[in-house]
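Work Package 3 (structural annotation) set out to generate three-dimensional models for the target panel prioritized at the project kickoff. During this period the team completed the workflow that converts sequence records into discrete structure tokens, so that structures can be stored uniformly alongside our sequence database. As a representative example, we reproduce one entry of 181 residues exactly as it appears in the project archive.
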Amino acid sequence: INSLSGTDWVANFSGKNVQVFNPNGIVLDTITNPLFKGPWGMAFNQGTRNRADGSVDSFFVSDANNATIDRIAVIPTNKGTTFRIYQIGQLTNVNGGSKVNITWTPSLQIGRQHYVDVLLALDPATNRVAAYPNSTTVNTTNTLSTNKGITVFQGKPLNMPGGLTINPLNGDLLVVNLNDN
């Protein structure tokens, strides 16, 4: 892939890979890695660069079979695009996994603390929202992560959170509960 502009990225749970499609629905690339254990949720970092590994973009994928979060670093080269996968998080793994949904935001205020380049993840097993600041640059090694993230919120009214997004009008975090809709 020489240009990722206008592509769609799909977490392929049953194929244990991530597929990249052009606007016409043609598969441009299939990204595989042993870290992928049932790719489920996906998020994009809107072009935040990581100078340490040369990436110009990153995509994040959560794995439903083991409740981990991986970063796919998009690195342009003279011969095309290279993808490097790093594990950046490990949430609560219950009964062989958890369907972790994720979203990315350029900044997040938690109390008096201000964070940048933040990946937000739902931890449905513990009724928790976790934040991974500096998500584009954290862990650029082959080391598996045990990072549970920073707790943004935990407990009621969360009741097995299953979906999340950021309200573009005011920056509020919106969460959907699976157990009580």
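DSSP finds no helices and 13 strands in the chain.
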